TrEMBL record:
The chain crosses the membrane at residues 133-149, 169-190, 202-224. It comes from the Eukaryota. Its main location: membrane. It is a multi-pass membrane protein. The keyword Ribosomal protein does not apply. PROSITE patterns: TLC (PS50922). It comes from Elachura formosa (spotted wren-babbler). It is found in: Membrane. This is TLCD2 protein.
Length: 230
C-alpha cells in the first residue's frame, strides 16, 4: 500500500473512533437527544473543518509557497499530500456514517457531494498531482466551521441568541469568500489550464465544478432565506 492510502485508512479509523466517543466528550443537550447520531456526526465534521486552520492554514501555505499559485499540478509543500489524504479519510467516514444512519432521501445531496470530493481528492492522493488544486478546495472548510456551528446551535435550540445571529453573519460572509469565490477561482483555473491537464482529469474536474457550483448556490439561498428572510 502507498503511504497516501495508509494515511487515508488511518484518518478513516481516527474519525470513526472520534465519532464513537464524541457523545462522552460533548454530551447532547435535551433538544438533541432524539437524534444522537446527527449530534455526533456534526461534531465530527466540525473537527475536520478545523484541521486546515489549526494544523496548517491553507492560505498560509500559498503565502509561504508562492510557486503554488503558478503550478497547482506538480507543486505542493511538505505535509500537503498528507492533509489531502486525511480529508479523504474523513469524507469516507462521513459517507459511511450517513449511509448507515440516515435515510437515502434525506442525505442523497451530501452523499453525492462526498462522492465527488472523494474521487477528486483521491486522484490527487494516488497520483501525487493536483495536490495544490486540492489545497485550494480545502479553503472551503474555513466556511464549514461556521456552517457546522450553525447546525450545532440549531440542535441545541439556541436559535434566538446573539451567538446564533453573529454566527449567521460570519457564516454568510465566509460562504461568499471561501466557498463561492474559491469554486469560481478553481473553475477559472481549470478553463485557463485545460491544455496542461489530461483529458480524463479535466473531465472529472469540470464535472465536479458543474455539480458543486449549483449545489452551493442553492445552499446559499437556503441559508439566506432561513436566517434572514424568515
Amino acid at each position: 500500500l502507498s503511504p497516501g492510502l495508509l494515511v487515508v485508512a488511518g484518518s478513516f479509523a481516527a474519525f470513526r473512533l472520534l465519532n464513537r466517543g464524541l457523545e462522552r466528550l460533548v454530551p447532547p443537550p435535551p433538544s438533541a437527544r432524539r437524534n444522537r447520531w446527527k449530534w455526533r456526526n456534526i461534531w465530527t465534521s466540525l473537527a475536520h473543518s478545523a484541521l486546515p486552520d489549526t494544523h496548517s492554514l491553507s492560505p498560509c501555505r500559498f503565502y509561504l509557497h508562492p510557486e503554488l499559485s503558478n503550478d497547482l499540478v506538480g507543486t505542493h509543500p511538505p505535509g500537503a499530500h498528507s492533509l489531502v489524504a486525511v480529508s479523504v479519510g474523513y469524507f469516507l467516514e462521513d459517507f459511511v456514517d450517513m449511509l448507515c444512519n440516515q435515510k437515502l432521501h434525506q442525505s442523497w445531496e451530501l452523499l453525492f457531494h462526498h462522492s465527488v470530493v472523494i474521487v477528486c481528492f483521491g486522484i490527487a492522493v494516488l497520483l501525487h498531482q493536483y495536490v495544490g488544486f486540492a489545497l485550494v478546495a480545502l479553503l472551503v472548510e474555513i466556511n464549514s466551521i461556521f456552517l457546522h456551528l450553525r447546525q450545532i446551535l440549531l440542535m441545541a435550540d439556541l436559535v434566538h441568541t446573539t451567538c446564533y445571529r453573529l454566527n449567521s453573519l460570519i457564516n454568510l460572509g465566509t460562504y461568499v469568500v471561501f466557498r463561492m469565490a474559491t469554486l469560481a477561482w478553481m473553475a477559472r483555473w481549470l478553463f485557463l489550464n485545460r491544455q496542461h491537464v489530461p483529458p480524463a482529469t479535466y473531465a472529472v474536474g469540470t464535472v465536479g465544478m458543474a455539480i458543486m457550483t449549483p449545489m452551493n448556490i442553492i445552499l446559499f439561498y437556503r441559508l439566506l432565506r432561513s436566517d434572514f428572510f424568515k
